């Protein structure tokens, strides 16, 4: 055991399809630290899944939330995006897309549900939770973590009092977790980011991005990280409830198929390129989370229909190293071989 008496192998908190009690519990029960990506979950659902996790394992787990994002509603831009989606809706035999009634969950209600769920750790991405909130959470006994994609973000999070910083490298799958400057200005690789944060901060740094096997874990430790976070590799384990279309696309993807895109959500994220990312490349989109809410019906229908061209295939650059099948516990064991006690 290392950081905060938690294991050195962490599962990245993946929101969406992978946010399941079975997967989180299997990682924690298997000797790692599972995390629930709760960003898209209704508050009541956070409590339900946390209770399910706890029913499956007595081991600690974490819950992750997106910090509130500043955004401006833009109906004209949203309608233009919906018009593009309408073509693909028609291909799948769906009704024309409409403006969503709700764009995102209430963050304060999500946080209250997370606190009530009593995870071992609460982590944040896409922002600095702030000194007052961090202090309040720590006073209640929670370990609090923030996510940095550059040193300035790590310093801001440290000033707010977080217990540790997750260093999200350029290679990581899913949404970019930074919050200072532009996302394109913080595309720093894990190999360069982790040691810079380790040198700059007085608190532990957790490496994330491009880690998929024991070699990556060993490298993260050599760079000074106190734990290694793995996301994409856990998408392939038996307990992960991915749609067959998503899983098949990941198995077929090559290294050069990885791309950064705003096509599905309006916020820069890494995944496997497909028809939708290519056809929306360079197209101006409304602010996140408007496209994310607007494209959800298409993504859900495409998953059911086996149409990977219209699914957000979030995955990191280490995807070709992440294709071993088996259980979450087996993957944790394989990864842990790279960590020196």
From TrEMBL:
<dbReference type="GO" id="GO:0016491">
    <property type="term" value="F:oxidoreductase activity"/>
</dbReference>
<keyword id="KW-0288">FMN</keyword>
<dbReference type="InterPro" id="IPR004136">
    <property type="entry name" value="NMO"/>
</dbReference>
<protein>
    <recommendedName>
        <fullName>Propionate 3-nitronate monooxygenase</fullName>
    </recommendedName>
</protein>
<dbReference type="InterPro" id="IPR013785">
    <property type="entry name" value="Aldolase_TIM"/>
</dbReference>
<keyword id="KW-0560">Oxidoreductase</keyword>
<keyword id="KW-0285">Flavoprotein</keyword>
<keyword id="KW-0216">Detoxification</keyword>
<keyword id="KW-0503">Monooxygenase</keyword>
<comment type="similarity">
    <text>Belongs to the nitronate monooxygenase family. NMO class I subfamily.</text>
</comment>
<dbReference type="Pfam" id="PF03060">
    <property type="entry name" value="NMO"/>
</dbReference>
